[in-house]
Hints:
The complex is a heterodimer of chains A (257) and B (267). Chain A is built from nine helices and ten strands. Chain A has a ten-stranded mixed sheet, sandwiched between helices. Chain A has helices spanning 44-51, 83-86, 93-103, 108-121, 137-150, 167-184, 195-201, 229-234, 236-256; strands at 2-13, 16-28, 33-37, 59-64, 67-68, 76-79, 155-159, 187-192, 204-208, 213-220. The model of chain A has no long low-confidence stretch (mean pLDDT 93). Chain B has 267 residues and is mainly alpha-helical. Chain B has one domain (47-253): MetI-like fold (Orthogonal Bundle). The longest helix of chain B is centred in the C-terminal third of the chain and has 39 residues, at 170-208. Chain B is elongated. The interface between A and B is medium-sized, with 24 and 21 residues. The site of adenosine-5'-diphosphate has 12 residues of chain A, from strand 1, strand 2 and helix 1. Magnesium ion (MG) is lined by residues 44-45, 81, 159-160 of chain A.
Amino acid sequence: xxxxxxxxxxxxxxxxxxxxxxxxxxxxxxxxxxxxxxxxxxxxxxxxxxxxxxxxxxxxxxxxxxxxxxxxxxxxxxxxxxxxxxxxxxxxxxxxxxxxxxxxxxxxxxxxxxxxxxxxxxxxxxxxxxxxxxxxxxxxxxxxxxxxxxxxxxxxxxxxxxxxxxxxxxxxxxxxxxxxxxxxxxxxxxxxxxxxxxxxxxxxxxxxxxxxxxxxxxxxxxxxxxxxxxxxxxxxxxxxxxxxxxxxxxxxxxxxx
Amino acid sequence: xxxxxxxxxxxxxxxxxxxxxxxxxxxxxxxxxxxxxxxxxxxxxxxxxxxxxxxxxxxxxxxxxxxxxxxxxxxxxxxxxxxxxxxxxxxxxxxxxxxxxxxxxxxxxxxxxxxxxxxxxxxxxxxxxxxxxxxxxxxxxxxxxxxxxxxxxxxxxxxxxxxxxxxxxxxxxxxxxxxxxxxxxxxxxxxxxxxxxxxxxxxxxxxxxxxxxxxxxxxxxxxxxxxxxxxxxxxxxxxxxxxxxxxxxxxxxxxxxxxxxxxxxxx
Lengths: 257, 267
Ligand SMILES: Nc1ncnc2c1ncn2[C@@H]1O[C@H](COP(=O)(O)OP(=O)(O)O)[C@@H](O)[C@H]1O
Ligand SMILES: [Mg+2]
């Protein structure tokens, strides 16, 4: 279980202070798929960096399976928004996916299996020896997802992973994430600024206010587990849920003024 | 509309051909100037006499020994400087406290011309090869060190956080993120250092009298063997060209992936 309690983060540079997060509390159950949705600049990346132990919070705490986070916890993988910069350009696709496994001291034969499986799962079989910069943006993000999947994390954090790819690729990648989640029994916390995306992907949506950031509302997404781009998005229940999320976000914006 | 052809109708050769023609022209001018009596041939002997002196030198064991001394001082000094520069650059560059602590010291030490250290070198090593080494090391070190600092500063924060999030050890972060990023900068540093090292090697030998080509130039001048002096100067020039060529080719070969990345990004 992932618990975020009273999380606060103030960036200080010289005398300037930016309160990126004011007071955040929410939990994500093991095996759940939760979407965090909030406007740009509301501190979503800051929150993920605190959860992944890359950044020390100013106040409050983060616990993963009861253990306080103070540095990147084991069993967690992050997919960054800037996939192009997150992959190592001096390594082939295979090496990129394999390197974290080497660091985790996974045996060679098992590494091979995991890399092959992960690349197969994201539909990139055959690109093992290519370099990341030889691939399209969507394919690069697939490599980053494969790298996270091969790592066999219990918790997967994704920071607006599809914000920079075209609409068609984005729809494909959303379905990929749903299918991976169902297959791998992994806990996913998916951050986005896109309301439709959050409703389409999540079992639950946590809405953040704009800065100073608090949790505005939470919503259970009671859509069927089998979702597809065409029918789910046209489902009256989907439209209803996305309207609810939209209203809350509008409310949060008004409250901030 | 057809494009207007400008310039002379004479088809000029390739740049390499032009370069060779220019060089040949220079050699011809140097041949002619003293022969026409435009300059005193005691100061500038004609090309043919310099060439003859050069041919003589190649039969002289002392010349080869001096060339060897210069090359040893150059290579050894460069190797030490590169080793120390890379190590210091990575350590200091990746620890912000150290970087800030040393910043003003570096800014003070770096601009000191190596030649200002000649008296100190003589004091420490006399006319030994050690003097040359010290000056070469000092000058070459900064070239590498500063480039490595740039390289370390160029590490992409996202790549670095990726490595951290996958729990890479400190060593693995250096090995797999910092080093590959800094490598192109290291090569630039080595290329610059290689040229500077040669300049300093010759200077030290010339001024201090440490064994090497520089000393031979001074000896030739003192014994009024002017064509020999010019021949030796030509040799140092050729050395410089060869070193530069070697460094550039090495850089291009080893950084093939890097060039391709740049190419891809540009398109
Ligand atoms: N390293 C930093 N130093 C200072 N301010 C920062 C830093 N990172 C982010 N911020 C500020 O914190 C706020 C939240 O940023 P961020 O977490 O990136 O938001 P989001 O991911 O939701 O777009 C913004 O106002 C941003 O300017
Ligand atoms: Mg962000």
